[in-house]
Design goal:
There is one protein chain. The protein is an alpha/beta fold. The chain has a domain of about 180 residues: TIM Barrel. Helix content is about 40%, strand content about 15%. The chain contains ten helices and ten strands. About 45% of the residues are buried. InterPro entries: AKR, Aldo/ket_reductase_CS, NAD(P)_OxRdtase_dom_sf, NADP_OxRdtase_dom. Keywords: NADP, Oxidoreductase. It comes from Spirosoma pollinicola.
Protein backbone atom coordinates (compact mmCIF):
# COMPACT_ATOMS: atom_id res chain seq x y z
CA UNK A 1 0.00 0.00 0.00
CA UNK A 2 1.29 3.45 -0.96
CA UNK A 3 0.23 6.14 1.50
CA UNK A 4 -0.42 9.58 -0.05
CA UNK A 5 1.94 12.39 0.86
CA UNK A 6 1.83 16.16 1.18
CA UNK A 7 4.48 18.65 0.13
CA UNK A 8 5.72 20.92 2.92
CA UNK A 9 6.51 24.60 2.37
CA UNK A 10 10.18 23.80 1.70
CA UNK A 11 9.42 21.10 -0.89
CA UNK A 12 9.93 18.08 1.40
CA UNK A 13 7.43 15.25 0.91
CA UNK A 14 5.75 13.92 4.08
CA UNK A 15 3.35 10.96 4.35
CA UNK A 16 -0.20 11.95 5.30
CA UNK A 17 -0.68 9.01 7.68
CA UNK A 18 1.78 7.69 10.22
CA UNK A 19 2.20 6.16 13.66
CA UNK A 20 2.38 8.15 16.87
CA UNK A 21 4.47 6.40 19.51
CA UNK A 22 3.50 8.29 22.64
CA UNK A 23 3.17 5.22 24.84
CA UNK A 24 4.06 5.80 28.49
CA UNK A 25 5.04 2.62 30.34
CA UNK A 26 4.83 0.66 27.08
CA UNK A 27 8.39 0.96 25.77
CA UNK A 28 8.63 -2.81 25.53
CA UNK A 29 5.71 -2.70 23.06
CA UNK A 30 6.84 0.29 21.00
CA UNK A 31 9.32 -1.60 18.84
CA UNK A 32 6.73 -4.23 17.92
CA UNK A 33 4.13 -1.54 17.17
CA UNK A 34 6.50 0.22 14.78
CA UNK A 35 7.43 -3.04 13.06
CA UNK A 36 3.72 -3.86 12.56
CA UNK A 37 3.01 -0.34 11.27
CA UNK A 38 5.87 -0.57 8.78
CA UNK A 39 4.48 -3.92 7.60
CA UNK A 40 1.11 -2.19 7.08
CA UNK A 41 2.72 0.42 4.82
CA UNK A 42 3.45 3.14 7.38
CA UNK A 43 6.46 5.30 6.54
CA UNK A 44 5.99 8.11 9.10
CA UNK A 45 7.05 7.60 12.73
CA UNK A 46 6.36 10.40 15.23
CA UNK A 47 8.33 10.29 18.48
CA UNK A 48 9.74 12.85 20.93
CA UNK A 49 12.50 13.09 23.49
CA UNK A 50 9.83 13.23 26.20
CA UNK A 51 8.41 9.85 25.14
CA UNK A 52 11.62 8.10 26.14
CA UNK A 53 11.48 5.66 23.23
CA UNK A 54 13.75 7.09 20.54
CA UNK A 55 16.08 4.08 20.91
CA UNK A 56 13.15 1.71 20.35
CA UNK A 57 12.27 3.64 17.20
CA UNK A 58 15.84 3.16 15.95
CA UNK A 59 15.80 -0.55 16.78
CA UNK A 60 12.48 -1.10 15.00
CA UNK A 61 13.60 0.68 11.83
CA UNK A 62 16.88 -1.21 11.83
CA UNK A 63 15.17 -4.60 12.25
CA UNK A 64 12.58 -3.81 9.54
CA UNK A 65 15.16 -3.85 6.78
CA UNK A 66 13.44 -0.86 5.16
CA UNK A 67 15.93 1.76 3.96
CA UNK A 68 16.25 4.73 6.30
CA UNK A 69 15.62 7.04 3.34
CA UNK A 70 12.12 5.56 2.93
CA UNK A 71 11.04 6.40 6.50
CA UNK A 72 10.06 9.87 7.71
CA UNK A 73 11.14 10.36 11.34
CA UNK A 74 9.83 13.17 13.55
CA UNK A 75 11.08 14.01 17.02
CA UNK A 76 10.68 16.99 19.34
CA UNK A 77 12.56 19.09 21.90
CA UNK A 78 11.00 18.87 25.36
CA UNK A 79 10.12 21.90 27.51
CA UNK A 80 12.98 21.66 30.00
CA UNK A 81 15.49 21.48 27.13
CA UNK A 82 14.37 24.70 25.47
CA UNK A 83 16.66 27.68 24.90
CA UNK A 84 19.31 27.99 22.18
CA UNK A 85 22.23 25.97 23.57
CA UNK A 86 20.10 23.46 25.46
CA UNK A 87 18.04 22.78 22.33
CA UNK A 88 21.17 22.09 20.27
CA UNK A 89 22.38 19.66 22.94
CA UNK A 90 18.96 18.00 23.17
CA UNK A 91 18.84 17.61 19.40
CA UNK A 92 22.27 15.95 19.38
CA UNK A 93 21.09 13.49 22.05
CA UNK A 94 17.99 12.67 20.00
CA UNK A 95 20.07 11.98 16.90
CA UNK A 96 22.32 9.70 18.92
CA UNK A 97 19.37 7.75 20.36
CA UNK A 98 17.76 7.50 16.92
CA UNK A 99 21.08 6.39 15.36
CA UNK A 100 20.72 8.89 12.51
CA UNK A 101 22.64 11.92 11.22
CA UNK A 102 19.62 13.80 9.89
CA UNK A 103 16.04 13.86 11.19
CA UNK A 104 13.19 14.48 8.78
CA UNK A 105 11.25 16.82 11.06
CA UNK A 106 12.20 18.48 14.35
CA UNK A 107 9.52 20.22 16.41
CA UNK A 108 9.23 22.47 19.46
CA UNK A 109 6.97 20.35 21.66
CA UNK A 110 5.19 23.18 23.53
CA UNK A 111 5.36 27.00 23.41
CA UNK A 112 7.39 27.85 26.52
CA UNK A 113 7.14 31.63 26.80
CA UNK A 114 10.58 32.50 28.15
CA UNK A 115 12.45 30.30 25.66
CA UNK A 116 10.42 29.94 22.49
CA UNK A 117 12.24 32.50 20.35
CA UNK A 118 15.68 31.18 21.27
CA UNK A 119 14.48 27.62 20.77
CA UNK A 120 13.23 28.46 17.30
CA UNK A 121 16.54 30.16 16.50
CA UNK A 122 18.24 26.86 17.44
CA UNK A 123 15.90 24.95 15.10
CA UNK A 124 16.75 27.37 12.30
CA UNK A 125 20.45 26.69 12.92
CA UNK A 126 19.84 22.93 12.87
CA UNK A 127 17.92 23.30 9.60
CA UNK A 128 20.49 25.56 7.95
CA UNK A 129 23.20 23.06 8.90
CA UNK A 130 21.27 20.35 7.04
CA UNK A 131 20.65 18.22 10.12
CA UNK A 132 16.85 18.44 9.87
CA UNK A 133 15.03 18.26 6.56
CA UNK A 134 12.18 20.35 7.99
CA UNK A 135 11.42 22.18 11.23
CA UNK A 136 8.18 23.11 12.89
CA UNK A 137 6.21 23.44 16.10
CA UNK A 138 3.67 21.52 18.13
CA UNK A 139 0.82 22.75 20.31
CA UNK A 140 1.11 26.29 18.98
CA UNK A 141 -2.05 28.25 18.24
CA UNK A 142 -2.36 31.41 16.10
CA UNK A 143 -1.37 33.75 18.94
CA UNK A 144 1.84 31.78 19.51
CA UNK A 145 2.58 31.62 15.79
CA UNK A 146 1.91 35.33 15.28
CA UNK A 147 4.50 36.06 17.96
CA UNK A 148 6.99 33.53 16.56
CA UNK A 149 6.69 34.85 13.03
CA UNK A 150 7.67 38.37 14.13
CA UNK A 151 11.23 37.09 14.66
CA UNK A 152 11.47 33.85 12.66
CA UNK A 153 13.66 33.73 9.58
CA UNK A 154 11.99 30.47 8.51
CA UNK A 155 8.25 29.78 8.59
CA UNK A 156 7.49 26.52 10.41
CA UNK A 157 6.73 23.71 7.97
CA UNK A 158 4.36 21.98 10.40
CA UNK A 159 2.20 22.75 13.40
CA UNK A 160 1.21 19.57 15.21
CA UNK A 161 -1.92 20.02 17.31
CA UNK A 162 -4.48 17.79 18.95
CA UNK A 163 -7.17 17.29 16.33
CA UNK A 164 -10.39 15.34 16.09
CA UNK A 165 -13.93 16.43 15.28
CA UNK A 166 -14.30 17.04 19.03
CA UNK A 167 -11.45 19.57 19.20
CA UNK A 168 -11.79 20.94 15.66
CA UNK A 169 -11.29 24.69 15.33
CA UNK A 170 -11.67 25.57 11.63
CA UNK A 171 -10.10 28.99 12.14
CA UNK A 172 -6.84 27.32 13.22
CA UNK A 173 -6.67 25.20 10.05
CA UNK A 174 -7.56 28.30 8.02
CA UNK A 175 -4.70 30.19 9.69
CA UNK A 176 -2.24 27.43 8.85
CA UNK A 177 -3.40 27.47 5.24
CA UNK A 178 -2.94 31.24 5.01
CA UNK A 179 0.59 30.97 6.42
CA UNK A 180 1.50 27.90 4.31
CA UNK A 181 1.98 25.77 7.43
CA UNK A 182 0.93 22.11 7.20
CA UNK A 183 -1.46 20.97 9.93
CA UNK A 184 -0.57 17.70 11.65
CA UNK A 185 -3.06 16.18 14.07
CA UNK A 186 -2.33 13.99 17.06
CA UNK A 187 -4.84 12.06 19.19
CA UNK A 188 -7.25 11.70 16.23
CA UNK A 189 -8.90 8.78 18.07
CA UNK A 190 -9.42 10.84 21.26
CA UNK A 191 -7.79 7.94 23.12
CA UNK A 192 -10.96 5.91 22.66
CA UNK A 193 -13.16 8.32 24.60
CA UNK A 194 -15.61 8.81 21.72
CA UNK A 195 -15.71 5.34 20.21
CA UNK A 196 -19.28 4.85 21.45
CA UNK A 197 -20.58 8.32 20.60
CA UNK A 198 -23.98 7.51 18.98
CA UNK A 199 -23.48 10.14 16.26
CA UNK A 200 -20.15 8.63 15.29
CA UNK A 201 -21.37 5.02 15.57
CA UNK A 202 -24.27 5.74 13.23
CA UNK A 203 -21.95 7.19 10.59
CA UNK A 204 -19.42 4.38 10.96
CA UNK A 205 -22.16 1.80 10.38
CA UNK A 206 -23.21 3.68 7.24
CA UNK A 207 -19.69 3.35 5.81
CA UNK A 208 -19.17 -0.16 7.23
CA UNK A 209 -16.04 1.02 9.00
CA UNK A 210 -15.03 1.33 12.63
CA UNK A 211 -15.45 4.60 14.47
CA UNK A 212 -11.65 4.82 14.60
CA UNK A 213 -11.34 4.46 10.84
CA UNK A 214 -13.97 7.17 10.38
CA UNK A 215 -12.07 9.56 12.67
CA UNK A 216 -8.80 8.98 10.78
CA UNK A 217 -10.49 9.43 7.42
CA UNK A 218 -12.09 12.70 8.61
CA UNK A 219 -8.65 14.11 9.41
CA UNK A 220 -7.15 12.96 6.13
CA UNK A 221 -9.97 14.56 4.14
CA UNK A 222 -9.20 17.83 5.87
CA UNK A 223 -5.69 17.53 4.40
CA UNK A 224 -4.19 16.93 7.83
CA UNK A 225 -1.15 14.73 8.46
CA UNK A 226 -2.55 12.22 10.94
CA UNK A 227 -0.68 10.09 13.50
CA UNK A 228 -2.97 7.67 15.37
CA UNK A 229 -1.27 5.79 18.19
CA UNK A 230 -1.68 2.13 18.99
CA UNK A 231 0.46 -0.76 20.23
CA UNK A 232 -2.00 -3.45 19.08
CA UNK A 233 -1.33 -5.19 15.76
CA UNK A 234 -4.97 -5.51 14.66
CA UNK A 235 -5.72 -1.89 15.51
CA UNK A 236 -2.63 -0.66 13.67
CA UNK A 237 -3.63 -2.61 10.57
CA UNK A 238 -7.16 -1.20 10.83
CA UNK A 239 -5.87 2.35 11.25
CA UNK A 240 -4.00 2.13 7.95
CA UNK A 241 -6.94 0.54 6.10
CA UNK A 242 -8.67 3.86 5.42
CA UNK A 243 -8.00 4.50 1.74
CA UNK A 244 -10.84 2.44 0.28
CA UNK A 245 -13.68 4.81 1.20
CA UNK A 246 -14.50 8.51 1.18
CA UNK A 247 -16.70 10.42 3.61
CA UNK A 248 -19.28 12.46 1.70
CA UNK A 249 -19.20 16.27 1.85
CA UNK A 250 -22.47 16.17 3.75
CA UNK A 251 -21.12 13.79 6.38
CA UNK A 252 -17.84 15.71 6.65
CA UNK A 253 -19.88 18.84 7.38
CA UNK A 254 -21.87 16.90 9.98
CA UNK A 255 -18.71 15.64 11.71
CA UNK A 256 -17.37 19.19 11.72
CA UNK A 257 -20.21 20.03 14.12
CA UNK A 258 -19.16 17.44 16.73
CA UNK A 259 -16.92 19.94 18.56
CA UNK A 260 -17.25 19.84 22.36
CA UNK A 261 -13.62 20.65 23.28
CA UNK A 262 -12.86 17.09 24.38
CA UNK A 263 -9.07 16.88 24.69
CA UNK A 264 -6.60 14.36 26.01
CA UNK A 265 -3.79 16.95 26.33
CA UNK A 266 -3.70 20.45 27.80
CA UNK A 267 -5.32 23.22 25.76
CA UNK A 268 -2.54 25.38 24.27
CA UNK A 269 -4.91 28.34 24.26
CA UNK A 270 -4.33 28.47 28.03
CA UNK A 271 -0.61 29.19 27.45
CA UNK A 272 0.17 32.89 27.07
Amino acid sequence: MIIPSTTLNNGVEMPLLGLGVYAPKQNDEVQSAIEWALEAGCRLIDTAAAYGNEREVADAIRSSGIPRSDIFITTKVWNEDQGYNKTIRAFNRSLERLSIDVVDLYLIHWPIKEHRHETWRALEKIYSDGRARAIGVSNHYPSHLDELLTQAQITPAINQIELSPYSYLPEVLDYHHQKNIQTEGYAPLVRGEKQNDPKLVELAEKYEKSTYQLLIRWSLQHGVVTIPKSVKRERIQENFNVFDFTISDEDMALMDTFYDNTRIADDPRDIA
